[in-house]
Specification:
The chain has 783 residues and is α/β, with parallel strands linked by helices. Helices cover 20% and strands 15% of the residues.
């Protein structure tokens, strides 16, 4: 019966289309309408459509004729459409339309103020792979007939005024990689049939009015990486089946009406980086199994009704955790002492006890990692330990507090007791309580300090330490103990590698199908090749030219230092050699390529490196890497997008080409044996230059423009469309013409961290961590 409906629909729907001088008359009978609705709800069936230059021209002119303002306030696009699309004489008239082999392959009419509806006749555009109508004033519904656009890969119709339901029949578009329909007025349930979109990696439906439950069938979307459903009207439980989304990296369910418990089965999301389930009606305990999620860095479960105690979560990689405004009870887990948490908000719960002693030990949570801790409105007690003031960035006396950490989150002085630590990095809401050597009131010996409901513990307790690459670092150390003498490769006059001698050493250069070394990149004085190190580790081998003996000695000493720098956001240096005027550096291989190329490849597509997409995670990685280098007294010296490398997911950024020629006067064979103060050799000028470079890279991430940044040609990023206000402010501060007004690397990292905890895709940051107020305070301090 359904098959008969299907064939009848195809005949009845397309029989009324007559190409005629650039117009299409679409006649749809009541029977066709009923059949179309039946198809929309029945699931996936193959649809057929006509195609060809005349049909495609008619479909586009059909859209033009339906526009109420074809020019748009800023547009010269559809107004100029005339003649035959994809024909040589008329090609220039079809702005916003791309062709290949005589067919329309892409349409981009983004942010032109167009007012009209989406034409069902665009189902005739059979070769279109990209369709971008975002940020217009389009109304009406999403055409179910578009299901026949089987080659469509990228669909963006966000920030319009569309209504109606998501067509279930779109499951026919099996090539779809990205769907962005956020910020419309779409209603109805999420279609279970979309589970058939097996290639889908990006789905953003936030800020609509979708209702119903989360589809169980979506658990089969094995390639989905980014799913944002926040600010809808969804209800029901969190499906256990979603734990099968092995590729999911970003999940946002904030501000719906979801109920039930957090599923233990979601620990199967082995690629998850960030998850927001805040502002729902969830109850029950925090799942202990979530500690096994190897990449989960940010988790926000605030504003729910969660109960029970905080789980041990030993080994969890969490860096930001917000569980405020719940009903959690019990003690603070001592096991959290070794977690890499940098932002922790447990305010407004029912927690009891004191700060665990393990949290205060050297190398643990409060002594070295956390720089924002909010435990207010609980039932905690005890005194403020002086160890919290022990980080190396702090001033030497109380009078330096305000100047040493203007961006650090705060500790409210009201109600605190005991002696103020001399060596600290804490700022306060009431600076009068932290001037000179003024102590807090004495602590009653028998009771200690009670943290009153008005007290906010937000402690800036040190810069972020290196997140050791445990597996690879351990392997490297083991390899170093047993490695054989390195045999450097020879280069011919043409620069081609001779592999004979290298094949006897511990580096083997990989060959392509033509028998030539695999060249990854080339600079003015260097080439980077793909190779194997010690037989089984695939690496990048950078070969540089040098005939200067003194330069070779400096290279040797600098390389020894860099090979002992292990940090998540630095490209690791594994080995080095100097032979016959050639220097070789064996480095970590980053499969995602460099940031500049990635930003350029975004052109014309729904951007993946924009701030609200992967860009903020990239910026965070750069900021962390820069913070780590500066904390060791090493200037980057080459802060540009081409020196930022990405992993295969495009979300983890690492700094490359750091430290070379920038480690001034510090030549030690083992960084671990060196005192931290001896490494503080990066001058204020070079550090400030790094911050300016970060600002330029940040601008490229936000705007998508990789051309040379200059004061004359740069445009101000659009707020909030391209980035939140605090990131705009950060960009302006970093690129200040006066170096002393630029923030420190620590301040940069803090702003990016706090902004990241805002809801993904939101037009304005909505975090209880108050990054706006922190930034305002910082701006005032920096003048």
């Amino acid at each position: 019966m359904l098959s008969a409906h299907k064939h009848g629909l195809q005949h009845a729907y397309w029989i009324g289309i007559t190409p005629a001088s650039g117009h299409t008359a679409v006649k749809t009978s009541l029977v066709v309408t009923v059949l179309l609705a039946l198809l929309t709800t029945a699931g996936c069936d193959v649809l057929a459509s006509a195609s060809g230059p005349d049909v495609e021209t008619s479909a586009l002119l059909d859209f033009k004729s339906g526009l109420r303002n074809p020019a748009g306030p800023l547009s010269t696009g559809p107004r100029a459409w005339t003649g035959t699309v994809c024909s040589t004489p008329d090609a220039s008239a079809w702005t916003g339309v791309a062709c290949s082999d005589g067919h329309v392959t892409a349409i981009s009419l983004y942010s032109l103020g167009l007012s009209g509806t989406l034409p069902p006749s665009w189902s005739n555009l059979q070769e279109v792979t990209l369709l971008n109508l975002g940020r217009n004033l389009l109304t009406g519904t999403l055409p179910a007939s578009w299901a026949s656009m089987s080659r469509l890969q990228f669909l963006t119709v966000n920030e319009n005024k569309l209504t109606g339901m998501l067509p279930a029949s779109w499951c026919n578009m099996t090539d779809l990689r990205s769907i962005d329909l956020n910020s419309n007025v779409l209603t109805g349930a999420l279609p279970s049939a979309w589970s058939g979109l097996s290639q889908l990696t990006w789905l953003t439906l936030f800020s609509n009015k979708h209702t119903g439950t989360l589809p169980l069938a979506w658990g089969s979307l094995s390639n989905l990486q980014h799913l944002t459903l926040h600010e809808n009207l969804l209800s029901g439980p969190l499906p256990d089946s979603w734990g099968s989304m092995a590729s999911l990296q970003i999940l946002s369910l904030h501000k719906n009406g979801l109920a039930g418990s957090l599923p233990e089965a979601w620990s199967g999301m082995q690629s998850l980086l960030a998850c927001w389930t805040s502002s729902n009606q969830l109850w029950g305990p925090l799942p202990s199994s979530w500690a096994s999620m190897p990449h989960l860095a940010f988790l926000n479960v605030s504003e729910n009704a969660l109960t029970g105690v905080l789980p041990p979560w030993s080994g969890s990689p969490l860096q930001g955790f917000d569980a405020s405004y719940n009903k959690l009870t019990g003690l603070l887990p001592q096991e959290w002492a070794q977690m890499p948490l940098q932002i922790l908000n447990l305010s407004d719960n029912l927690l009891t006890g004191t700060l665990p002693a393990e949290w205060l030990a050297s190398g643990s949570l409060l002594a070295d990692n956390v720089y924002h801790l909010d435990l207010s409105n609980n039932r905690l007690h005890g005194s403020v330990p002086t160890v919290m003031g022990g980080n190396f960035m702090a001033g030497s006396s109380n009078s330096e507090w305000a100047a040493s950490a203007v961006l650090s989150p705060m500790i409210d002085g009201y109600g605190l007791c005991g002696t103020v630590p001399n060596n600290t990095n804490i700022t306060t809401r009431d600076m009068r309580s932290l001037t000179g050597s003024q102590p807090w009131r004495p602590c009653p010996a028998e009771t200690g300090l009670w943290l009153k409901p008005t007290v906010v513990l937000a402690l800036s307790i040190g810069a972020v330490l290196a997140l050791l690459l445990a597996g690879i670092a351990g392997l490297i150390v083991w390899r170093r103990k047993e490695r054989r003498p390195f045999v450097a490769p020879e280069l011919t006059r043409s620069g081609a590698l001779k592999l004979g001698r290298a094949s006897d050493g511990n580096v083997k250069f990989l060959l392509d199908s033509a028998g030539q070394p695999v060249l990854l990149g080339k600079g003015t004085s260097s080439e980077v090749y793909k190779a194997r190190w010690h037989g089984d580790i695939v690496v990048a081998a950078k070969v540089l030219q040098s005939e200067d003996l003194g330069e070779a000695e400096a290279f040797e000493q600098e390389s020894m230092i860099l090979e002992n720098l292990h940090y998540l956001h630095l490209v690791a240096h594994f080995d080095h050699a100097f032979h016959d005027g050639k220097m070789l550096i064996v480095m970590e291989l980053m499969e995602g390529g460099d940031l500049r190329v990635c930003i350029r490849s975004d052109t014309g597509l729904p951007r993946k490196t924009g701030w609200y997409q992967n860009g903020r995670y990239i910026a965070l990685g750069i900021a962390r890497g820069l913070m780590f280098l500066h904390s060791k007294g090493i200037a980057w010296g080459a802060c540009r997008a081409s020196n930022v490398l990405l992993d295969h997911t495009g979300t983890v950024a690492k700094i490359a080409d750091y430290g070379q020629k920038e480690i001034m006067g510090v030549l030690v064979p083992d960084l671990k044996a060196a005192q931290v103060e001896t490494l503080h050799s990066a001058s204020m000028g070079s550090a400030a230059a790094d911050i300016h470079g970060f600002g330029r890279v940040l601008w490229q991430i936000i705007t998508g423009d990789t051309d040379a940044w200059t004061e004359a040609k740069m445009r101000v990023p659009r707020v909030p469309d391209e980035c939140p206000q605090e990131i705009m402010n950060l960009y302006l501060a970093c690129t200040s013409a006066e170096a002393y007004k630029r923030p420190s690397a620590k301040q940069v990292m803090t702003v990016v961290e706090l902004s990241l905890l805002a809801i993904p895709g939101a037009r304005k940051a909505k975090t209880k961590l108050a990054s706006d107020q922190i930034w305002d305070s910082a701006s005032a301090k920096m003048g």
